[in-house]
Amino acid sequence: MIPRSIFESEHETFRNTVGAFLDKEVVPFHEQWEKDGQVDRKIWNKAGEAGLLCFAMPEQYGGVEAEFRYNAVMVEEVAKRGVSGLGFGVHSDICAPYILHNGSDVLKEKYLPKMVTGEKIAAIAMTEPGTGSDLQAVKTTAILDGDEYVVNGSKTFITNGQHCDLVIVVCKTDPSEGAKGISLIILDADSEGFTKGRNLEKIGLKAQDTSELFFDNVRVPKENLLGQEGMGFIYLMQELSQERLTIGVGALAAAQGVFEHTKTYVNERHAFGKPVAAFQNTRFKLAEMSTSLTVGQVFVDRCIELHVEGKLDAITASKIKYWTTEMQCKLIDECLQLHGGYGYMWEYPVARAWADSRIQRIYGGTNEIMKEIIARSL
Questions:
Q1: Which of 243, 268, 309, 334 is catalytic?
Q2: Count of CB atoms within 10 A of residue 150's CB?
Q3: Bridge partners of 195?
Q4: Which terminus of the chain, N or C, has less C-beta within 10 A?
Q5: Tell me, what DSSP letter sits at residue 297?
Q6: How far apart are CA 150 and CA 305, in angstroms?
Q7: Homologous superfamily of 123-230 in CATH?
Q8: The domain 234-376: what is its CATH number?
Q9: Is 10 a catalytic residue?
């Protein structure tokens, strides 16, 4: 890997803090959390106490108004350790910005300080059983009745779905419209008529709680509307570039982490009387993967720079999400092959990383959608 120039000394100090926290509070327990199907709720409080949640929020809400490079450091340190159960990214990098950028002062004061401390965990409910990447087709409704919205519908594949204390619901306030009828509403998890369904059993991300959510005549104060009615789709488009960059940052870091494990393994594992690393096929595969990681790191770092400068556009964000996740899946598959039969054993990091990586090409907008966005610009 070539030296990186985008991070300064304070970012590396923060990296050390994040790494120490993860190695002490997360890594030793992650295997058990995978068996449990979710992380221990207390890890959220510990992360909040350590200042690792929503640190980009303004000081008046408990954050330190850190720029995105700190978010990138957090994502990288989590990804390279393979501790995929943490839903911190959705909470801090996706939900919090929606509230900060579109919420009223009352909503910001109500939710953001407790999100910073980990007292309240946030989720965002986009996907529905019959609707994936086509957000314009959501069927969940929020119809205004006096001073309240009445929410009906269901969502699925929702990260932090079991632990969440608040949910940003993507819904139709005007079902007769397409994208123009979409709004975003904050719903408290203790609202009457709101229920959390089963914790979904997935191929990977086994320690991350991912749930179905159901809304049966849930009454929500109209003040819980984020921004303006009918502007939800625009708000979603404004925030998706950061989400897709975050996915790309994590994809590259996860691939790098598996690559490092694999280098160690092929030098220690012997076959036919010599280390697996001594075979030309192994050396060539490592050379190919190292090159892909170097190319990817340059692209990721440039996109981080653009985002910090406020210049990352939707097309470039789609390219970074598409390219890095395709590379991640291919590289980890190659690493698993170099492990032989042991690569298929769940106790090996490469096996877990292989299972965890597959979702990267689906969420945040499928890679087919990314290619469609890119193609439209050509």
A1: 243
A2: 17
A3: 214
A4: C
A5: H
A6: 42
A7: Butyryl-CoA Dehydrogenase, subunit A, domain 2 (2.40.110.10)
A8: 1.20.140.10
A9: no
Would you give the DSSP letter of residue 29?
G
Buried-exposed string 177-197: b where 16+ CB fall within 10 A, e elsewhere: eebebbbbbbbbbebeebebe
What is the 8-class DSSP label of residue 356?
A: H
Look at the chain and count its residues: 378
Q: pLDDT truncated to tens, each residue of the chain (378 aa)?
A: 678 899 999 999 999 999 999 999 999 999 999 999 999 999 999 999 999 999 999 999 999 999 999 999 999 999 999 999 899 999 999 999 999 999 999 999 999 999 999 999 999 999 999 876 777 789 999 999 999 999 999 999 999 999 999 999 999 999 988 889 999 999 999 999 999 999 999 999 999 999 999 999 999 999 999 999 999 999 999 999 999 999 999 999 999 999 999 999 999 999 999 999 999 999 999 999 999 999 999 999 999 999 999 999 999 999 999 999 999 999 999 999 999 999 999 999 999 999 999 999 999 999 999 999 999 999
Q: For residues 79 and 19, what is the distance between their CA atoms, to the nearest angstrom?
A: 11
Domain ranges of the chain: 9-120, 123-230, 234-376
Instruction: List Cα–Cα distances, 161 to 86, 155, 182, 194, 214, in angstroms.
Output: 12, 10, 21, 12, 11
CB 82 within 8 A of CB 353: yes
Cβ distance 161 to 196 under 8 Å? yes
**Residue 185, token pair as written in the block:** 């509403």
9-120 topology per CATH: Butyryl-Coa Dehydrogenase, subunit A; domain 1 (1.10.540)
Q: Name the phi and psi angles at 186, rounded to 5.
A: -90, 130
Please list, residue by residue across 274-312, b when 16 or more beta carbons sit within 10 angstroms of its beta carbon and e when fewer do: eebbeeeebeebbeebeebbeebbebbbebbebbeeeeb
If residue 22 lies in a helix (H) or strand (E), which one and from where to where? helix 9-25
**Phi and psi, residue 242, nearest 5°:** -65, -40
Handedness of CA 216, 220, 222, 225 (dihedral sign): negative
